[in-house]
Give the backbone structure.
Amino acid sequence: MQAVTAKRVTKRVSAKRRALVRGEPIVRGILAAALEELASAGYRALRIEDVATRAGVNKTTVYRRWPTKEDLVRAALLSVTDEKIVPPNTGSIREDLIALGRAIVEIQTSPVGQSLFHVFLAEGPDSELMAIARSLRAVQESGLRAIVEGAVARGELAPSDDPMLPFELLAAYLKHKMIADRAGVDEAQLARVVDLILLGALSPARRKQI
Amino acid sequence: MQAVTAKRVTKRVSAKRRALVRGEPIVRGILAAALEELASAGYRALRIEDVATRAGVNKTTVYRRWPTKEDLVRAALLSVTDEKIVPPNTGSIREDLIALGRAIVEIQTSPVGQSLFHVFLAEGPDSELMAIARSLRAVQESGLRAIVEGAVARGELAPSDDPMLPFELLAAYLKHKMIADRAGVDEAQLARVVDLILLGALSPARRKQI
């Protein structure tokens, strides 16, 4: 391990970043390059030309699919979040919460995820980048909503005025733990949090009195 | 309301900031001034002389009680968080969680709380200010731990490998809602979150099968 050269380390990181992105090879290459450019240059300074160079394609190849920087960045962020951040809808709300939690931890601890976090902070809450992120969250929410509705319909979750709350609690806890506390979250801790969200903290005896 | 002058608005904000701080009048004045200086100048640029001027006292009055900037800032932050962030230990874990939640919302939405949040972000995770904040959290945690232990002892909370988790979930959710989502949290929402943390999201029928 100690003999690994700097170049090989860079290659490995790049492979890891690319592994986050799905789709056809050429699309995957461009979107991964866009994420890398976004992570290193930020949103305002990002140029489609630089993305093309990094991906080793002609810039018209990029423009043909994504006419604007906003389109390209939206597609790049969606390629990371779309598949991972909407759980698989396994028919078990516990499994789905754990899958969502794993995806959040994976993205947040990946090199590209960490760089992107700082880019988001630097761009600020009123930036175009934040607006893109918010519109992606709306996509994610509709997927999560379908999962909650399924779980309520099959009698697994209690009906609620705020059906997204279990997902929100989980996401908030994981992000807070990793960002503010700078602590990792392992599988055991993830299961503990999911079970608290599903079963509650009250003792069974006290629960019966309610 | 529209006739209120800029000066009177400033005065009101100042009064609100001062109301967050407890203790003897002169101590309260100095600590409130320290918070205001911290919120406007940041930690690195903060000078004890400027705090004294703002509080209308001689700088030796400040140095006598708090020999260093670190001591002063620690005391100022503690004056906001100490009383509010450790719940009253009412004997009801639900009441204590709601009291903690209210305190977090109040601090986070206060003018001084909002400015301090940006100061903390700007100083960065490895700053002396963050180290002070972390040591204050240790103080808070010992207070919360006593509350949890009491609730477990009287059979209210189930024993847990991670007894602080209910408090952490609540704090993470509220901060995430107010900071990332830039949304307020009212009393009804606070009660909903606390009840989810205590009772869980599963339907009662499904719970019995576990």
